[in-house]
Task: inverse folding
């Protein structure tokens, strides 16, 4: 009788050891997948910001290349991927001919052809912006 109780105890102990190992394995897999999910999300935000950067570069370069009288409306997305705030940094447009998009965790920049700008305060997320070429000056209006 005592031998039968000993076997039950050993089976229970082995079961709990196996359950513990499975729990540790599940914890490690969950942590790894959570980390990878964060990396993918950061990459997607960076791609979305680069798309905004490219859009701004294209609009500015088109206005510069086509010349005086050019006018076109375009929309800036209110958020990156619908939930990440960003800002357009136009402070380097005149000196370095670069425009930047910055968000928490990164930034991207794009070179532009033009060197004279006005109304860069209109470049805010979510705005419908009109870009114009007024005598060689690239002007932005909301």
Result:
């Amino acid at each position: 009788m005592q031998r039968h109780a000993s076997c039950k105890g050993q089976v229970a102990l082995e079961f709990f050891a196996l359950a513990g190992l499975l729990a540790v394995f599940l914890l490690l897999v969950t942590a790894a997948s959570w980390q990878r999910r964060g990396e993918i999300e950061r990459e997607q935000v960076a791609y979305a910001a680069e798309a905004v950067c490219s859009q701004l570069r294209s609009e500015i370069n088109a206005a510069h290349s086509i010349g005086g009288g050019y006018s076109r409306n375009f929309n800036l997305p209110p958020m990156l991927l619908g939930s990440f705030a960003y800002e357009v940094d136009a402070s380097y447009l005149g000196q370095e001919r670069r425009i930047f998009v910055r968000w928490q965790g990164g930034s991207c920049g794009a070179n532009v052809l033009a060197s004279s700008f006005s109304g860069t305060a209109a470049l805010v997320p979510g705005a419908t912006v009109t870009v114009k070429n007024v005598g060689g000056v690239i002007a932005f209006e909301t």
Notes: The chain has a mean pLDDT of 88.
